[in-house]
Design goal:
This protein has 275 residues and is an alpha/beta fold. 40% of the residues lie in helices and 14% in strands. The chain is built from twelve helices and nine strands. A seven-stranded parallel β-sheet has the order 3-2-1-4-5-6-8, with helices on both faces. Strands 7-9 form a two-stranded parallel sheet. α1 crosses α6.
């Protein structure tokens, strides 16, 4: 049995689907037990910020897909270990490799990785580049018109389809040889925001246009959506250049046996979201 946290999110939903389709017994950790899940997936509830609430969900589980950044990661991993779980796959991020605890985003991922290592559990850590699904943040603008405005217009990211992260997680959870590995993974090409808008225009058949925000404008808008320390973290990553997510990495193809999906493929698979 495999327990998937974040089971209705961009990665978790794909992972639950893949495991269920492969005939792997899978539990989906959800807030709403009535959430729509693939046939064969068992819904379970629990609060990752209160590890003791997960004991029933963990019963009989041998593998866990875990998101980072919860309040008591050591306690959470303690419950996972006490349940007899054999293997953990932790989602992290590229900036965790910096070891920089002064950056709020890097810090929660670094601390999560430390908790996994300190737990003594067999574990695989995934450090993907930015998600293609982040493009869904543009939906309000696309519903209002044909102009997309966004921050950091000159920054290229080799964005990855969450389904490719899920595919790699599925391999790490169900096959030997990945314990102790830290995998960096990316999509197949570096894209600036304007490149994504161009692809979306072609896929949607719309005359879309991109306009870059100034740093001041971007900071104000981001401050309305996240804590100030996270805004500062992203500005350090992308305005100050402390994080480079442009390199194209071979990891997805090496581990899953197929190349990562392009942004065009992702967009075509999600056209309904943009209509």
């Amino acid at each position: 049995m495999i327990l998937v946290s974040g089971a209705t999110g961009n990665i978790g939903a794909e992972l639950v689907r893949m495991l269920a389709e492969a005939g792997e017994p899978v539990r989906a950790l959800v807030r709403d037990p009535a959430a729509a899940l693939p046939d064969g997936a068992e819904p379970v509830t629990g609060d990752l910020d209160q590890p003791q609430t997960l004991r029933a969900a963990l019963a009989g589980v041998r593998g866990v897909f875990l998101l980072p950044g919860y309040r008591d990661m050591p306690g959470l991993l303690g419950e996972v270990g006490a349940a007899g779980v054999e293997r953990v796959v932790l989602l992290s991020g590229g900036s965790a490799g910096s070891g920089d605890l002064t950056n709020a985003v890097s810090r929660y991922m670094i601390r999560s990785e430390e908790a996994v290592r300190d737990s003594g559990l067999a574990a695989t850590i995934l450090r993907p580049s930015g998600f293609m699904s982040n493009t869904l943040r543009w939906l309000p603008q696309l519903r209002a018109g044909d102009v997309v405005r966004d921050a950091f217009p000159k920054v290229a990211v080799a964005m990855i389809d969450p389904a490719d992260i899920a595919a790699l997680a599925a391999v790490a959870l169900t096959t030997a040889g990945h314990d102790g590995q830290v995998y960096r993974l990316s999509g197949p090409q570096p894209l600036r925001p304007a490149d994504r808008v161009r692809v979306l225009a072609e896929v949607l058949g719309r005359p879309l246009r991109f306009e870059g925000q100034s740093d001041d404008e971007a900071r104000v808008e981001m401050s309305q959506a996240m804590p100030a320390e996270y805004v500062d973290a992203f500005f350090r990553f992308y305005a100050d250049g402390e994080l480079d997510e442009s390199p194209v990495l071979p990891t997805v193809e090496q581990i899953t046996g197929r190349p990562p999906r392009t942004f065009e493929q992702w967009a075509r698979a999600h056209t309904a979201a943009f209509s």
